[in-house]
Amino acid sequence: MREGLRNWFDENMERFELIICDDLFNRQTVGSEKDNEKVYNFVTSECSGQLKPGGLLLWFFNFITPNSPGSKYSEKNPQSCFNLPARDENEETNWKGSRWTTEALKLKEQSIPMEVWLGDWMNKPVLIGEIFKKEWIRTINLNLVTILVSIGTMDPSYGKSVSACLKGGVIMGITDKRKKIILDLYGRKDDYSFVFDWFYEAARSYPGFRALLWEDDFAQWTLAAPYYNDWKHETGKTLPIIPILSSSLKTEHYGSDKIGRIMNLVHPHQTGEILINEAITNSKDYKLWENQYISFGSARKQISLNSSTGHSLKVAEKLDILDAEATAYIMIPSYAETGGFKSLKARRYAKGNSESGWLENR
Question: Is the pTM of this model over 0.85?
Answer without folding.
Answer: no
